Amino acid sequence: MRTQRQVMSFALQRRATLEALRRPSRVMMESDPCDADPLLVTSALHHGVPAGRECPVCAGEHLVVLTYVFGDQLGQYSGRIKQSAELVEMESQFGEFTVHEVEVCPDCGWNFRIRSYLLGDGRKRRSPRHVQTVEDIYG
Q1: Across the 139 residues of the chain, what is the mean pLDDT of every consecutive 10-residue run?
Q2: pLDDT of residue 48
Q3: Under a CB-based contact definition with an 8 Å cutoff, are residues 10 and 112 in contact?
Q4: The whole model's pTM is what?
Q5: Which residues on neighbouring strands pair with residue 8, listed in sequence order?
Q6: Which long-range contacts (CB under 8 A, 24 or more apart) does 122-130 make?
Q7: Bridge partners, 118 (sequence order)
């Protein structure tokens, strides 16, 4: 992606969390990292892209990466899961939005944000008009 900037890797925090899992005597910085929300697990099963490596906790083969987008200029589409092809398209349509990549293992519930970065062409735009969705109609 050509406009990718402000890349933040969470590799060190991930490594510390995995180390704390392996050594129970150490204090964990956050709650249990294997407590994936059921909606996150469902999203991983249906929308996840295979990570190409095994789960660091259970050594399962189903580790996937989800890509979430957030930003004021995205309007109602903020907080949605997007694929790589959609991100390339969105770069020229929106001025600035944040992308968060989360790895999830549906088998053991491992979930961790592995990377975040900004995308967009940098031009200020209004958020798109609210389009009525099925969620609006049926709640």
Answers
A1: 84 90 67 84 94 92 95 88 91 89 94 93 72 72
A2: 94
A3: yes
A4: 0.81
A5: 116
A6: 122/3, 122/95, 122/96, 123/95, 124/73, 124/95, 125/73, 125/94, 125/95, 126/73, 127/72, 127/73, 127/74, 127/75, 127/76, 128/74, 128/75, 128/76, 128/77, 129/75, 130/75, 130/76
A7: 5, 98
